[in-house]
């Protein structure tokens, strides 16, 4: 191809690096068992009702999905007490970020986000040739005042990852209230609550109810990829103003959420007992992981998600490689803007046992 054939904004992109698949590691290293604690997936599979819905959906896979995900849209709107036109369903929260970026950003427009944080905010903005302003975290948390100070007349989107991926930290309701009281009217705030269901704290707000419900100019992201155990099906949603949701619908790919994903997500709604069980198991797993990391001098940052962020005491990729050879996949964080750190997801008790043994083999206790 001749020079200049590809768009400059695409040529300059560094693509998102997904977690390494278990099968690849087994094949490359000849390992019989590999435990993946890299991608913040829930350690449990689909809810029982969702698994049954997936099985039923296979009989219709010769048909295209419902392009508007009507039943899921309607159920989500009812769940949040909203109109149908305030909900956008996408291929994971990531798919919603992509739609939002395409609908909103022109070359030269700006986004503002904390850093290190979720790379998709930056990748999708740069794909549109928009400018990205990365505001350093303070004590591993979003600095909301600094985010506001970074806003210019060209800023269209401000992202708040809540809790932040990869650090697992959150901002309190009071802090977010002050942010929304000051954010300029021309800015659309995106509050990413992908880990919402794991958190049971009085100072952690439901951004759909508190901010969207109050008429703030905000989009709130949620997903079925985490606690609901549907990461392999890619289904999430956004709640936002009607004009934003309508614009997102114009750029979405046809049939982007497949039939089993729609059916499984719909069947997952309402099982509060299973959500509570998984939330409790996650809390126990977080505590155990924190103890293991601390025992080896890798002081983790307190997290409200289903993962822990820890300084590796050097090159995070080097520690990732050593654990990989022991059959444990964690996440090196250079792509998230933190090259000296790793992120470890909460697994089952048995998977945490495997991680504990691997960590003991590659590191001496502190």
Describe the structure.
The chain is an alpha/beta fold and 366 residues long. The chain folds into 2 domains: 8-45 and 272-362, Aspartate Aminotransferase, domain 1 (Alpha-Beta Complex), CATH 3.90.1150.10; 48-268, 3-Layer(aba) Sandwich (Aspartate Aminotransferase, domain 2). Helix content is 40%, strand content 15%. The chain has helices at residues 8-11, 22-29, 48-57, 70-80, 92-104, 119-127, 144-149, 173-182, 207-212, 242-251, 259-268, 272-295, 316-325, 349-362, and strands spanning 35-36, 87-90, 110-115, 131-136, 155-161, 188-192, 218-223, 236-239, 300-301, 307-311, 328-329, 331-332, 341-345. Strands 2-8-7-6-5-3-4 form a 7-stranded mixed sheet, with helices on both faces. Strand 12 (331-332) and strand 13 form a beta hairpin. Helix 4 (70-80) runs parallel beside helix 11. The protein starts with 7 loop residues before the first helix and ends with a helix.
Number of domains: 2
Per CATH, the class of the largest domain reads Alpha Beta
Separation, N- and C-terminal Cα atoms: 54 Å
| Class of secondary structure makeup | alpha/beta
